[in-house]
Amino acid sequence: MSGKPVLYYFDGRGRMESIRWLLAAAGVEFEEKFLKTRDDLEKLRNEIDGMKLVQTRAILNYIATKYNLYGKDMKERAIIDMYTEGVMDLDEMVLYQPYLPKEEKEGNLAKIKDKSRNRYFPAYEKVLKSHGQDYLVGNKLSSADVYLVKLLYHVEELDPSALANFPLLKALRTRVSNLPTVKKFLQPGSQRKPFEDEKCLETTRKIFH
């Protein structure tokens, strides 16, 4: 891949936000081309060839491998995959929250609060406590840390006190947020996307329905 990577997506978080976070953490500048209509999507589908990756997980693994955020050996990579996949269910629930019908939002939010506080966050707090290191795997930043920290931010938007009982996760979030590349990404005006608003939802309906 020569030049800056180009991300084709709508102007919102969706599944692309994990990729934006990982590229930012790797210090890779990228360009974005926003889809606005169903035609844009069809055109893109017809053009895909060469080194154009379309599956979120494949893209994350490619970036992580290319920029040395994927462990030092096969064992570490397997653990990184396990930790990343471990929070994907919660990530999906958070991802769908703005798109749900009004009557389902409250129930989904209650589920997010319950599962993050009682299932997912305790598990990752325990991992950090078990080895006492700064990062999840091999005491070195990996794609699993970046994915988890992105999710911590997104859950906190919906449940501001979600991390109150998880000091090690809080410390991980601070540590990753203070990395110069991530710090820049967290500044206003960066390519980080806000929680989807009505205008963004309207655009996605035009593209995907």
From TrEMBL:
Transmembrane segment boundaries: none
Keyword field: Transferase
Reactions performed catalytically: RX + glutathione = an S-substituted glutathione + a halide anion + H(+)
InterPro entries, per the entry: Glutathione-S-Trfase_C-like (IPR010987), Glutathione-S-Trfase_C_sf (IPR036282), Glutathione_S-Trfase (IPR040079), Glutathione_S-Trfase_N (IPR004045), GST_alpha (IPR003080), GST_C (IPR004046), GST_superfamily (IPR050213), Thioredoxin-like_sf (IPR036249)
EC number per UniProt: 2.5.1.18
Family classification: Belongs to the GST superfamily. Alpha family.
Name of the molecule in the record: Glutathione S-transferase
Species whose genome carries this gene: Myodes glareolus
Lineage: Eukaryota, Metazoa, Chordata, Craniata, Vertebrata
